[in-house]
Amino acid sequence: MLICACGNRDLAIVTSWSDRNLGRQFWSCLRNERRCGWSGWFDEPMCHRSVEVIPRLIRSMNKLQESLQQATLQARMYKLIILFSWALFSTHYLKHGRSRL
Ligand SMILES: [Zn+2]
Predict the structure, then answer these.
(1) Which of 50, 62, 68, 72 is the most buried (most CB within 10 A)?
(2) Are 23 and 55 in the same domain?
(3) Any idea where the GRF-type domain is (predicted)?
């Protein structure tokens, strides 16, 4: 069983989000809900190519998600505009009849 340098046995596996170790997991001491500062790698070191490629893929994925959110908002806005224009058209049509169109 793994024990921290401070004697604590309450260790957690945490995922790194740094560019150099993106997604790599490590042990971290959780003494009194505050970390004592100790940590040790749980996963093996990542290969050089993964360290280079994965952050780029994550950034690319984030950009795509942003684009998707913007496109979704635009689609909602266009739907509202179409609904509004049809409501306006129907109101006008009912009020003035077919001959005044
Ligand atoms: Zn500790």
Answers:
(1) 50
(2) no
(3) 4-45
